[in-house]
Amino acid sequence: MFGIDTWEFVLLVCLAAFLIGPERLPEYVAKLRGWVKQAREYAEGAKSQLKDEIGPEYADINWRQYDPRQYDPRKIVRQALFDEDDDAAEVPGQHDPVMDEVGSTWEPMRYDPDRPTPYDDDAT
Fold first, then answer.
1. pTM
2. Alpha-carbon span 66 to 68, nearest angstrom
3. To 10 degrees, what angle do helices 6-20 and 25-54 make?
């Protein structure tokens, strides 16, 4: 929880109780209890509103698939960079007219400071 170990949390609670003092401690505990109760009411209200809006399909939702802790960002990036889509795979017998026109020896343009910068009237 927030990078705090159990013993550190207990130490923080004891330190807070010592700093607050015994005369104000019940007041702060009551405030904390009220905040927790209010947060639970908000969560239950949101849950019931979601059930009302979605309807009977709410029971069929797999909530675990939306848990962000199960995703590994490195795996997602690796899949996005290195896996080929089925739609992007080249179909035999189908040619790309742009690549046919350019040819198979296409190379990216190299920077030449003596050449003027290319300008496209249609793009601007």
1. 0.42
2. 6
3. 130
